[in-house]
Design a protein that fits this description.
- The chain has twelve helices and eight strands.
- It has 273 residues and is an alpha/beta fold.
- The chain has one domain: TIM Barrel, CATH 3.20.20.
- Strands 4-3-2-1-8-7-6-5 form an eight-stranded parallel beta sheet.
- Helix 8 packs across helix 9, helix 10 crosses helix 12 and helix 11 packs antiparallel against helix 12.
């Protein structure tokens, strides 16, 4: 088992990233990229560009052929990555190369089980990866993942949806390690539907009373104005489909420049004053 101290765990680094953003008078920006899209070399460039342009935390998807929560843009990115031969080990290697901000993997239960849960947790910790989001595991079935992650201090954020009853949402927030991921609207990920900020503001207020875990808003966050609205009512904004749309069809330095420009525009929206 990798030895870690409380201050160097993935969970601590995620918490610190939110705290640094708050101290700077802004929300945290969390861009999502799919590992290996459109190829491994380009993927590494995209990660570096996102970090250089203002990412506070990076969410890195492990490509999977049956993505429950992902809309067409991210599903297509995952398919491109799979067509390029991207494996879980490749995704972990790409994440491990990012050292200046925490990286949280986004994956599903089946790939983790195929890889081996204990092996997965150990690999994340050994490579300096902060944790993972697993959206298809309900709260009542998270004990095995928690048991594997806890010895390494890995973050394990949980999702709260618009349809989640209030009492259950509060229970999820209390169990969420790192931050609580607030889904802004019904449906899968995608940039073409407007986020429901009126609903999410009410949910944020309720969750603030239940937990002191940071809250970040995702699904449908696509513009600097969306980011500003999300950061005004929560602690951060997660942007995935719109970012992938910004470079889709491009590769290499061209794709990286598109990511750099897009993330820089989003980062400008995180400032609260």
């Amino acid at each position: 088992m990798t030895l870690v101290t409380e201050s160097t765990t993935g969970l601590a680094r995620v918490t610190a990233a939110f705290a640094r953003a708050r101290t700077a008078g802004r929300g945290a920006l969390i861009p999502y990229l799919c590992a290996g899209d459109p190829d491994r070399a380009t993927s590494a460039k995209l990660l570096a560009a996102a970090v250089a342009s203002g990412a506070d935390i990076v969410e890195l998807g492990i490509p999977y052929g049956d993505p429950l929560a992902d809309g067409p843009t991210i599903a297509a990115a995952a398919q491109r990555a799979l067509d390029a031969g991207t494996t879980i080990d490749d995704a972990i290697d790409l994440a491990a190369a990012v050292t200046s901000v925490p990286v949280i993997m986004f994956t599903y239960l089946n790939p983790i089980l195929q890889f081996g849960l204990d092996r997965f947790a150990a690999a994340l910790a050994a490579r300096g990866i902060a944790g993972a989001i697993v959206p298809d595991v309900p709260l009542e079935e998270t004990d095995a993942i928690r048991a594997a992650f806890a010895p390494y201090g890995l973050a394990f954020p949980q999702l709260v949806a618009p349809t989640t009853p209030a009492a259950r949402a509060e229970a999820i927030a209390r169990k969420s390690d790192g931050f609580t991921y607030l889904v802004s609207r019904l449906g899968v990920t995608g940039a073409k539907k407007e986020p429901d900020f009126a609903w999410i503001a009410e949910r944020v207020a309720a969750l603030r009373r239940a937990s002191d875990s940071p809250l970040a808003i995702g699904f449908g966050i696509a513009t600097a104005d969306h980011v500003r609205s999300a950061c005004t009512i929560s602690d951060g904004a997660i942007v995935g489909s719109a970012l992938i749309d910004a470079y889709a069809g491009h590769a290499g330095d061209d794709a990286a420049e598109r990511v750099r420009e897009f993330v820089a525009r989003l980062a400008a929206g995180t400032r609260l004053a």
